[in-house]
Amino acid sequence: MLEVLEVTKQYGRKVAVDHISFTVNQGEVVGFLGTNGAGKSTTMNMITGYLSCTEGKITVNGHDILHEPEKVKKQIGYLPEIPPLYQDLTVWESLNFTYDLKKVKVNKKAHLEEICELVQIKEVKNKLIQNLSKGYKQRVGLANALIGNPPILILDEPTVGLDPKQIIEIRKLISDLAKTRTVILSSHILQEIEAVCDRIIIINQGKIVADDTPGHLVQMRQNERRLTLQALGEAEKIKDVLASMEGVDHVSYAKTEDEDIYEYYIQTEEDAVRRKVSGILAEAHIPLLELHHNKPTLEDVFMYYTTPTYEKLEEIDFEIIEDDEEYVGGREDASNL
Ligand SMILES: Nc1ncnc2c1ncn2[C@@H]1O[C@H](COP(=O)(O)OP(=O)(O)OP(=O)(O)O)[C@@H](O)[C@H]1O
Q1: Cα–Cα distance between 83 and 96 in angstroms, integer?
Q2: Residue limits of the ABC transporter domain (predicted)?
Q3: In this structure, which residue's CA is closest to atom 17 in ligand 1?
């Protein structure tokens, strides 16, 4: 079990990680999510002992990374964002070098061959690392992390910079590895996290803002129903009609390519609103052209926990005409969750 307890990291006056705590149990596959600069790499570097904590404590199966670094490091395989590979070694030389550094005890040749088979790098074993594609370099990085059979794998953005085919291959490889190991995976790619992880930790500005299963995080946003519709007529009048409906929290609108048609964005916590919209508009003799119910996705969850209010509005795919003060309230609620 990995335990991160009230851990803080300061770079000079910059607080990169701020009193975070979480536990990862054996066999869990945890996605570590956050925007650029949120503190993911700093946290991973502290867990793996590459960086010391300014405050707090990290233990792996009861061993403190600060006091028993060798014991902890033996249990962790780390694939940093940029794998540190000696470009002028062949793949096989690189693996041998890591094996020696890690002072692994199992039969060398058999162990390294098994890993080459697992990450599918047998065919490039004798190639110089500098001549490998980025996808293969990532596999070699992963192979290095697997030397010594560590039960915990920490992977920092393992698919960044890879082409779509390589991404699919590495993702499949991670899923296979996760069957028998504890994995902490940092990524910006939500489909990746959703495909591989059974738990998500979201970090924002150095603080943990969410820690749950992907399904439950999405479910918690179910209350926030959003309807998008297009209707024909005068925008302000239509907006007033929609806003007058019981259960509607907020309405905004934006231009479409057709100058008579605006798109309306309704925020509500009641499913009944969706059922009543067409009737209300018909009563007011307003032709309804389209109506969509936007179900929350993991992307919505991520945006909810990591986006400042003003960006949240900009992120919507059309020009916002209204100022939305209710979003400000919503944001404050969000940070309390
Ligand atoms: N060595 C350093 N000195 C000073 N500040 C640093 C250092 N390393 C990171 N930071 C700062 O600490 C914060 C967290 O950085 P970190 O690299 O952990 O974020 P991240 O979530 O991994 O981001 P990314 O997704 O871009 O890799 C950022 O504001 C970053 O600028």
Answers
A1: 16
A2: 2-230
A3: 41
Structure tokens at 120: 């599918």
Is residue 33 in contact with ligand 1, taking CB distance under 6 Å?
Answer: no
| Residue located nearest, by CA, to atom 26 of ligand 1 | 36
Taking a C-beta distance cutoff of 8 angstroms, is the pair 128, 85 a contact?
A: no
- Kindly report the CATH class assigned to 2-218: alpha beta
What is the CA(28)–ligand 1 centre distance, in A? 26
Which of 8, 10, 14 is the pocket-test mutation for ligand 1 (most atoms within 8 Å of CB)? 14
Closest CA to ligand 1's atom 6: 11
Q: What pLDDT is attached to residue 97?
A: 95
Q: Are 7 and 57 in contact (CB under 8 A)?
A: yes
CB within 8 A of 11, min separation 6: which ones?
none
Helices (H), 34-107: 40-47, 69-74, 91-102
- Ligand 1, from 8, 9, 40: best to mutate by most atoms within 8 Å of Cβ? 40
| Residue ranges, CATH 3.30.70.1340, the chain | 225-295+307-336
pTM of the predicted model as reported, rounded to 2 decimal places: 0.77
Model confidence pLDDT, tens digit, residues 265-317: 898 877 788 889 989 999 999 999 999 887 788 888 888 888 764 344 444 44
14 CB within 6 A, ligand 1 = yes
Per-residue pLDDT band at 223 (split at 50, 70, 90)? low
9 lines ligand 1 (CB under 6 A): no
This model of the complex carries an ipTM of: 0.97
Class of domain 225-295+307-336: alpha beta
For the chain, residues classed under CATH 3.40.50.300 are: 2-218
Average pLDDT over residues 59-82: 92
Of ligand 1's listed atoms, the one at least distance from the Cα of 43 is: 18
